[in-house]
Amino acid sequence: MADSEAADSAAAFTHLGSAVRTALSERGFETPTEPQRKAIPPLATGRDGLVIAPTGTGKTETAMLPVFDAVAGTERFGISVLYITPLRALNRDMRDRLDWWGDQLDLDIDVRHGDTTQYQRQKQADDPPDVLVTTPETLQAMLTGEKLRKALSDVSHVVIDEVHELAASKRGAQLTIGLERLRELANAFQRIGLSATVGDPGEVGAFLTGGRGCELIEVDVGSRLDVRVREPHVTDEDERLAGELATEPPLASHVRAIRDLVADNESTLIFVNTRQTAEALGSRCNALDLPIGVHHGSLSKEARIEIEDAFKAGELDGLLCTSSMELGIDVGRVDHVIQYQSPREVARLLQRVGRAGHRADRLSSGTVLTTRPDDTLEALAICRRAHEGLVEPAEIHHGSLDTVANQIAGLVMDFGEIAAARAYEIVTRAYPFRDLSRERFKEVVRELSGNRILWLDEEADRLEKSGGTWQYFYANLSMIPDEETYTVADMASGRTIGTLDERFVVNFAGPGEVFIQRGEMWRIAEVDDEESEVKVSPIEDPAGEVPSWTGQEIPVPQPVAGEVGAIRGRAGESFSGGASRDGVARDLVDRYPTDEYTASEALGPIERHAETDAPMPTDDRIVVEFENRDAVVNAAFGHTVNETLGRVLSALLGQQTGSSVGMEIDPYRIELDVPRGIAGRDIVEILEETDPAHVEGIIELSLKNSDALKFKLAQVAATFGALKSWQGNERFGRDRLLAALEGTPVYDEAVREVFHEDLAIEIAGEILAAIQNGEIAIETHGGRTPIGIDGRSSGTELLAPENADASVIETIRERIREDRMRLLCLHCEEWERTQEVGRIPDQPECPLCGSTRIAALNPWAEEVVAAVRADEKDDEQEKQTQRAHQAATLVQSHGKQAVIALAARGVGPHNAARIIAKLRENEDDFYRDILAQERQYARTQSFWD
Questions:
Q1: What sign for the dihedral angle of Cα 741, 743, 744, 748?
Q2: Using CB atoms within 10 A as the burial measure, which of 77, 122, 172, 832 is most buried?
């Protein structure tokens, strides 16, 4: 650094008073970091500011030094500073970091969150600290306490950490109104936000300040990244490791690459996209005795702290972690970051790799290890976009009505009674609610009044407390949906292993199922719903066991998927022009941060596709390929757009045929299982003729039959007080709930949230318009293509062998053999018997009439039997009778093989027929197909109609 630059740099600290500068010298802060150089001067003047910089660049001190300077040495009565973090773990970190400054500057610093003892709470109310570190939810509770309201009236500064995380959640929307409620107590106060890199800093700044203007202080991260994308190639060592790890060579090569990168650096974070991947890789690292720990949100608090401290102390060289480590939890110096598989988003790559290399003022060093062609191309696109600063915007929850309901109750708690007009004015000062109409606000108030959450005095236009206000408010401090958490406990030792979410347990957890947690493999022995506990036993020899569960995918945004489509287009043209794969790979290496081997492997499907007569799917060309009843719409538009277009297609095709349409999507394909009689041209017609303005209506209509909406509706209804408590899947009639709430703000909010989280209505409409005006071409191809087929494994993490070990197949075979099935003769309708599958003859036959038309049903299928025997049938009984006849046709044609397929979990007659129809070399493949179908059922069960 030149002398003048050094002087300018040091000048940042001259904006601070002598007490803080003295403390800085004692702390060893000689030179400000870049965020401190840029941010301290404007923040020291008292201006609101948003500081955007990577974790580890001194953001906390950037915000707090000018704040400490403003309050140190002044006469203080209540709480002067609130430091709000989204995680309790960050509270602990902040307390550790800020206590030293408090001692130096004679400031009392304390922490308050959900685990704070009643004694500590009372002490804080009676003798408020100068600086309070807390969470958004605890602020909600503090705003209603008599003594704490008085203490909060002295707040002069509010610092919000990880504001990008809050901006994209309802917790953040709730906090913005909470800050306006605080403003009613404390008048104007300085607001400082600390954020990772975002694509719309002005929007996040407005979120922070209520749109009142904000100093944006941004540190460029993209130009400081040193990230390479590699796909490890299989070596002779990997062949040996595969045997040791009971896996296949490709996965062994990934573990070996992680091992080598960790060995090359002193401290390495290894980010993965799901907890299950962290656990699966952790188990392989354990098998090799590598000094690598596992860290994610399902582990107990004690386990997480233990792992964090071990890494910080250098006892572990690497940490396998999920998004929980993206936030600013202090784990000491990080030299290198490994991202296992594509990070899916530019923002995620920047947050993760941005954790490395700051202490020595080095570039942030990272490696993305990819596993398949789509994965590699996606990672390359993300790395390029990161260098260019093309980051996704924060998805703010604008106008969420259950948040409005929650905060209206909060305002009534604050004031006892409040004019509706004043409550409306306070709510709409918050940025996400600036466009909320008075009529919408009144609808929410009436809903709350009808649910007895408050009293509405229509004549005086006043809102008043009711008997239910207090109970409602304290039951709904958080906007995080109230789902049960199950404790995972080792049966032998009784120790707590971690936790599992209720939806996870309901959909997947049954005795005998296998999963990985803390890097170890466990088998479920018992699920105790009353105690909310999953009892497990360790699997001593995990060889051959395949974990049952995979995690939910992080959605890939449309611009990233579009760049993958553009890469395909450019490479496809080169191949069609006679270029070699080596030559095209070199072109890719010139433009993206990778090596020729990785580029060449990623180009394989594109080269094979170019050798066919099929058109190449790109960012501006959709290719619909069709074979039998399988259709694939190759569309490089990302997860949420493809989910939206897929729902439109499945709804309209289903409407045309009167049959259900199966659908799976990834960022580059919409895979449809269509009824007979549908051809590729039918799909093209829908895309070319559907009015873009009708997309929202079509989707909403299709959502009414989905569990996704009903589950969300129950959660939103609880937040509105329409359900006194959310009791889980089986304790209320969801269809009746939907019928009762349709047309209310509760229903509207549930639909809005599903749209916001899972779909992209506006962009999907734009794409339909682009198809119809010729900007996006659409072509068809008979038969499957290399790129279309390449999506088959896209949703599955590479955690287990493609072909499960023989012991797993034998386990499935034994389980089905011991299962019981109900046999019913559909010829005489008299004979029925429940029998173990293993005892059923190869060709079941009715002993009364001799017919082989035998339906194989679940043992509890009394309703189906009653439907078959009913003289007059309603619509539901007709459906059940039809399914019974489909099952009987299969058994009559294929005998015991059909009984076995029908005995599998979640395999009805349609899927059983598909399993049976496949040509196979041996019986094990038949059971592998059953296993694959059972896993598909487990993954999608909660979203079925």
A1: positive
A2: 172
Residue with tokens 């000491």: 332
pLDDT value of position 550:
40
Q: How many whole angstroms separate alpha carbon 449 and alpha carbon 606?
A: 60
Q: Over the stretch 791-813, which tens digit does the pLDDT of each residue have?
A: 644 333 333 333 334 556 776 78
Q: How far is 444 from 742, CA to CA, in rounded Å?
A: 14
One-letter amino acid of 66: P
The residues, ordered by sequence, that sit 6+ positions from 497 with a Cβ below 8 Å of its Cβ are 300, 488, 489, 490, 517, 518, 522, 536
Asked if residue 174 lies in contact with residue 409, where contact means CB atoms within 8 angstroms, the answer is no
What amino acid occupies position 701? L
Chain Cα centroid distance, residue 560: 18
Domain ranges for the chain: 3-219, 223-388, 401-475, 485-538, 613-784, 814-943
DSSP bridge partners of 225: 364
* 167-181, 307-321, 727-741, 843-857: the lowest-pLDDT one: 727-741
Q: Which residues of 435-457 are buried (b: 16+ CB within 10 A; e: fewer)?
A: ebeeebbebbbebbbebebbbbe
Tally Cβ neighbours within 10 Å of residue 106.
10
DSSP 937: H
pLDDT at 519: 55
pLDDT in tens, 74-111: 888 899 999 999 877 666 667 777 888 999 999 999 99
Tell me the CATH number for domain 223-388.
3.40.50.300
- The mean pLDDT of the chain is 87
Both tokens of 356, joined, read: 């490395």
Its pTM stands at: 0.79
Q: What's the topology of domain 3-219?
A: Rossmann fold (3.40.50)
Place of tokens 């802060």: 29
Higher pLDDT, 205 or 815: 205
Alpha carbon distance 10, 7 (integer Å): 5
Distance of CA 481 to the CA centre of its chain: 14
What integer is the mean pLDDT of 573-593?
97
Tokens 């530019």 belong to residue: 346
Please report the pLDDT score of residue 544 as a whole number: 41
In this structure, what are the phi and psi dihedrals at residue 418, rounded to the nearest 5 degrees?
Answer: -150, 145
Q: What is the pLDDT of residue 880?
A: 87
Half-sphere exposure in the Cβ direction for 37 (13 Å, CA): 13
Tell me whether domains 223-388 and 401-475 share a fold.
no
Q: What is the DSSP string of 520-573?
A: EEEEEEEEETTTTEEEEEE-S--TT---S--PPPPPPPHHHHHHHHHHHHHHHH
Cα 182 from Cα 782, distance rounded (Å): 63
- Angle made by CA atoms 904, 483, 739, in degrees to the nearest 5: 80
Element (H, E) at 879: helix 875-894
Exposure string (b/e) for 370-392, b if CB count within 10 Å is 16 or more? bbbbbbbbbbbbbbbbbbeebbb
Return the closest-CA partner of residue 621 out of 606, 636, 611. Answer: 636
Pick the CATH number of 401-475 from 1.20.1690, 1.10.10, 1.20.120, 1.20.140: 1.10.10
CA dist list (Å): 511 to 287, 299, 337, 524, 707 = 25, 21, 38, 5, 25
Q: What is the CA radius of gyration of the chain?
A: 30
pLDDT at residue 445, as a whole number: 97
- pLDDT at residue number 563: 98
